[in-house]
Amino acid sequence: MSGGDVIFLVEDARWKKPRGLTARLKRAAGEALAQEGFKGQTGLTVLLSNDARLRALNRNFRAKDKPTNVLSFPAAENKDGYLGDIAIAYGVTAREAKAAGKRFGDHAAHLVVHGVLHLAGYDHELSRDAKKMESLEVKILARLGIADPYERNA
Predict the structure, then answer these.
(1) Residue 17 in domain
(2) For range 68-97, the mean pLDDT
(3) Is residue 137 part of a domain?
(4) pTM confidence score
(5) Least crowded by CB within 10 Å, which of 17, 98, 106, 119?
(6) For residue 12, what are the contacts with CB-CB under 8 A and spacing of at least 6?
(7) Total domains in the fold of the chain
(8) Is the pLDDT reported for residue 4 higher than 70?
(9) What is the pLDDT of residues 12-52, one digit of tens each?
(10) How far is it, in rounded angstroms, from Cα 47 to Cα 85?
(11) Is 48 helix (H, G, I), strand (E, B) or coil?
(12) Dihedral sign for Cα atoms in the order 60, 122, 45, 12
């Protein structure tokens, strides 16, 4: 597995509370990068922030004035292998994990994987694209020992 240079910027101190979370998230990014065949000088930055920051980013870049769980910003040019930036909101992530009965760390790892796949060019605007992206997420998360986040309990 090649994790490249994955830089974490912790803007909200609550991200530091779960023991070993940053290492776990770095591994999640590395698995997603490896899945997509990125080798060598691949780099990206993950901003671990709060709802207010994600709301501002969402408003400024997507014209949606509300917080969201994760945003990805692909690099304009893949210069020196830099893929781009990912930002994740602590509050939204915690609320979603609790509502779904998932562990916070598992959900945060899923959001990192999701963000990396966006940087790799995947999206989920169309149903067929969503199925492809979700299938990759499930495959990567399984390697991390995380259950299928899309599994529907009937």
Answers:
(1) yes
(2) 92
(3) yes
(4) 0.92
(5) 17
(6) 48, 49, 50, 53, 90
(7) 1
(8) no
(9) 999 999 999 999 999 999 999 998 888 655 789 999 999 99
(10) 8
(11) strand
(12) positive
